């Protein structure tokens, strides 16, 4: 939302929150990697005024620094903290105590955490993340599968083996993020004809993930974030302007996901 379209204009927080709520979204993610705690506190009253639930996205650079974010999330009333951990040991055996310490911290403070599938963090690589999931049964995932499509440079169509790897992630996922990627691009324009095979693939993954979520949860909210980043996530032309309108695309994804959820028998 900052900026929300090709003009590059950054709207005031009250207008952003009014736009988001007015289009039927239930909340917004506060990304502490793209902004900071001061921005979170500044936008909070406008979210509350518009009935928007805050989701906190954390990028802890030390094990200890996550604690302050968890306390802030409790105060904000966030459903969980989405952790993109910047503590990145090379060896799997060294990663495990990092994850377990953060999980213990989460339990002690009473704020759930999920580990986002994301590049340049402790879950950077699909294969390593699958090993972490095998070794830490309580580890829960926020699935942004765009990162792993680029990470593994999956050929299209994906093999049954590769589809199976993604299914293993989805079975441990308690929330989802919406961005469509290809094997070379992290964020595709949704309406370009050449991108439709990837759009269909991601819609099938979102359906699979939400269907599995429903099989594990008799009630509660399944959280799906329509996450479309500004340049250089968003592709630009020679004039530096974005090649699509992310605000419009976020609403397209919202519509798709609500349709899938309703088709699975859920209330939107």
From TrEMBL:
Keyword Isomerase found: yes
Name used for this protein in its record: Sugar phosphate isomerase/epimerase
One GO MF term attached to the UniProt entry: isomerase activity
Key words of the record: Isomerase
Domain of life: Bacteria
